[in-house]
Amino acid sequence: MAAIAVPQPRSSKTESYTDNKRKEDIRHSNIAAAKSVADAVRTSLGPKGMDKMISTSSGDVIITNDGATILNNMQLLQPAAKMLVELSKSQDAAAGDGTTTVVVIAGALLDSCRLLLTRGIHPTVVSDSLHKAAVKAIDILVAMAVPVELGDRESLVKSASTSLNSKVVSQYSTLLAPLAVDAVTSVVDPEKPEQVDLRDIKIVKKLGGTVDDTQLVKGLVFDKKVSHAAGGPTRMENAKIGVIQFQISPPKTDIEQSIVVSDYSQMDRILKEERSYILGMIKKIKGTGCNVLLIQKSILRDAVTDLSLHYLAKAKILVIKDVERDEIEFITKTLNCLPIANIEHFRAEKLGQADLVEEVSLGDGGKIVKISGIKDMGRTSTVLVRGSNQLVIDEAERSLHDALCVVRCLVNKRFLIAGGGAPEIELSRQLGAWAKVLHGMEGYCIRAFAESLEVIPYTLAENAGLNPIAIVTELRNRHAQGEINAGINVRKGQITNILEENVVQPLLVSTSAITLATECVRMILKIDDIVTVR
Hints:
The chain is an alpha/beta fold. It is 46% helix and 16% strand.
């Protein structure tokens, strides 16, 4: 009997079919979502950029044109769009400024990548080409940069001013820029000159006055009053300051329980014990020569009671209560003292010393406590920010933070480059010339990268109400003639040598923006599916 032959399926490559439509759809939807986020913040780029009014779910209103703040408050659902929020946060952490720029560049790159993908270029080829272009772009930026010395205060102030000119509080840049420079230079450690910790600069916000009243304080400022209970002192010269983390109040039981008092004699005995307990603590404090107490806020029980405040006032000790836990490190570093966690450890060598501690009235009903003339003061500084309303104060704080970050960038990497779209046009020109030398798909992709960078000068001109096409064409022409520092002067509405106009920014802001934007775009390109796990 003959065996029946079963036909075997042929594994021919020509007959296999892979559905790539879904992968393309996912990629295009990711690009479209991220691009729409970039377009949302694009109008707030540059000195003439628009501000955004953000209404939060809690009913608060924020007015800002800081890219990181706008994106942070956006409630996004699409995962790729959320990546642009993270990109903005990364730029904020790395450089502090350029948070809008990095998102706009990423949006333009994604748009170029979409066109490359529709022409059939593989995402991996596009991704690798973007990486090569970014590395080359960094080399071009470094070659354009001008070295700056930390002692050159004028250059540092120019750079901080450029950062502030695009903010809501731009009219106060002449006050805030030198203030930011002085604040950062005062905390630079000569032993580690490349490292600046912005946590050593404390910004205290106080409602009232105008932004013009903002000042740099050499010492400490508390946005609270001195404790006035029982007529205690509000001014103390030759102060010996103790920072305490324990409570000057009667002890409580460790577990939740009730004590039943049956007669008056027992009540008197409890009150007498309380008085002697508190009095014993205050005598110990007074015995060390301490005459100013900073008391940390307590969550277990009251840090101070009316009785303890009464005894402290009698002992002529000035009291500042409800000091936040996270401020203790800054306070002890500034006063060059140690925090005291237990009354048994209260000793004179743990105290800080200052010439004057006083309560200062600001003339509009507000009061602050100021500590000045601190002996052996740590490398810290305090900025007191004033403003007519909370929205202005919050925006002034954000703008000041960006200016501080710009000065920190210059301390870390001491190079300046021109602003006003000059580096982006120069990058576009040089990368475009390099792309012509390369062969195949790589050159095509790098040319697309170069053209994407023109979005920055184009947007600057557009936001300033100028003709963007005419301005960018003229800018290309000037750079082709060798004027590498030619940029858009939005105040004059024309193209000038932007370096001579003092529009400068740290090299780190631009290099970081190019690197981070490219990394983000490459990551989005490599995604071909979204898996939802419930």
